[in-house]
Every structure is written in C-alpha cells, then in structure tokens.
Automatic annotation (TrEMBL):
Pfam families: Annexin. GO terms for biological process: response to cold; response to heat; response to salt stress; response to water deprivation. GO terms for cellular component: cytoplasm; plasma membrane. Belongs to the annexin family. This is Annexin. The keyword Cell inner membrane does not apply. SMART domains: ANX. Keywords: Annexin, Calcium, Calcium/phospholipid-binding, Repeat. GO terms for molecular function: calcium ion binding; calcium-dependent phospholipid binding; phosphatidylserine binding.
Length: 247
C-alpha cells in the first residue's frame, strides 16, 4: 500500500488532464474503479447513463456480487437505489433484474436451450407487431455470457440476421443500449470505457514527461500475471498493487 501511495503521488506530480485521471483510475482494483465510475455517472448534475449501463451490463455475476456491497460501503447508498432514482421504464427494469439475478459464469452451454432462446427472442421481436420486452429482459438478464454468445450464433443460423441488428430494430434508447452491451460483452467485445482508459495509459510514454516518469520508476519491477500488469517495488515480496488491465 505504501508503494501504491508513492506511485500515486508521482503520477499526480508528473501528469495532467485526462491522462492523469485515467492512470490514477487504473491504479485502483477493478471493483473499486467500477464503483468510482458509477458514482460519477449517477451524479445528478452530470448524469451519464450510458457509462453506468456499460459498466453494469458488461460485468459477470460474480463481479456484480462483489461490486454491490463495495458500492454501499464507499458511498452509503445501495446501487439499486441509484438505479431506481436515476432510470426509468424498461431500462430500469433490466438493470435492476441484472443486478439481482445470479448467473452461471462458466463456459458450458446448453445448445438446445440456446436455440429455444433464439426462437423466443424472434417471436418476441421481429415476428410480431410490437415488442415483448419482458422476454428480452428475462433472457438477457438470466443467461451467462457464453450462453448469450450461443444464442447469437443460433439466431444468425436460424434467421440469417445478426441478433444485434434485431435488438437495435426492436428496442430503443438506454434499454437498447443495455441489451447491446450485454450482447457485445458476451461476444468478447471491449467496453468503451475500458478501451478509452487503456488508450490513455498507452499515450503516457508518448508525452514529454514520460522520460521523467520512466527514470523515477527504476526502483519498480513491472510484470504481467494472468492478463494483469503489476507494479512491484524492488526487494518487496509481493506486488504492491494492480496498475492496469492486461493488453
């Protein structure tokens, strides 16, 4: 923790603007970073429901279960209450159900069930006049990432049309955006906020002050563990903190 504070002070003194904000965010563990960004997104004077939706709908069930109590401990308000207050309609229903529903995070998929879900989505959307939002919410909130990916494949195979296009056609607004984020996360797509953060971090070494930062970081070792970059003070027995997500 001491070395984490040392590097935070170093970054604060050597960087400015959006790059500084991005790097300092990336020093936090993933759950804390999510909570920080969500709180900013739910500010009434700068409400940003797209960011909040991206974060919530791209997280696994286990990540959500870690995030909810942490958010309350940090801000003394339940994440569900923020959503109740700041969202409405089908968008609100989907986010609340997604937070409340435990999902299997593993890779196994029931292909027959995925096919049935693809048919159910078709009947709830493109096959009928109007949209059965309850079916969309149920399937997108209750199924795992691997299962949603299998549904997308089945939908394309059965109807020769990408599921994402069907979602765009049948839904709108933040509700549409939430479903697209779920579908894209299932397909392995990067969240916009994550990509932006990584690009900001990568630009550090293109700036004039990068040489100063690199020079002062000589006392630290940088290595990669399970897709995550760790920074460690030379001579320390354990990594000091997580610096950023894996490339």
């Amino acid at each position: 923790m001491r070395y984490s504070k040392e590097l935070s002070k170093l970054i604060s003194s050597e960087l400015t603007g959006d790059v500084k904000k991005a790097v300092l965010l990336w020093l936090q563990d993933p759950a804390t970073r999510d909570a920080t960004l969500l709180k900013k997104a739910f500010r009434e004077d700068r409400l940003n429901l797209r960011v909040a939706t991206e974060i919530i709908c791209s997280r696994t069930s286990s990540q959500i279960q870690q995030l909810k109590p942490l958010y309350f401990n940090m801000y003394r308000v339940y994440l569900e209450h923020e959503i109740e207050h700041q969202t409405h309609g089908h968008h609100k229903k989907m986010l609340l159900k997604y937070l409340a529903t435990p999902r299997y995070d593993g890779p196994e998929v029931d292909q027959l069930m995925a096919g049935d879900d693809a048919r159910a989505l078709y009947k709830a959307g493109e096959k009928r006049l109007g949209t059965d939002e309850k079916t969309f919410i149920r399937i997108f909130c209750e199924r795992s990432r691997a299962h949603l990916a299998a549904i997308s494949e089945a939908y394309l195979r059965l109807y020769e049309r990408p599921l994402e296009k069907a979602v765009k056609h049948e839904t709108s607004g933040h509700f549409d955006f939430a479903e697209l984020q779920k579908n894209r996360a299932a397909s392995g797509c990067q969240v916009v906020a994550t990509v932006a953060g990584k690009e900001a971090v990568s630009r550090i070494f293109a700036k004039e002050k990068a040489a100063i930062l690199q020079k002062r970081m000589k006392g630290f070792r940088i290595y990669k563990l399970q897709g995550t970059f760790l920074w460690q003070k030379m001579g320390a027995n354990t990594p000091s903190f997580v610096a950023s997500g894996g490339a």
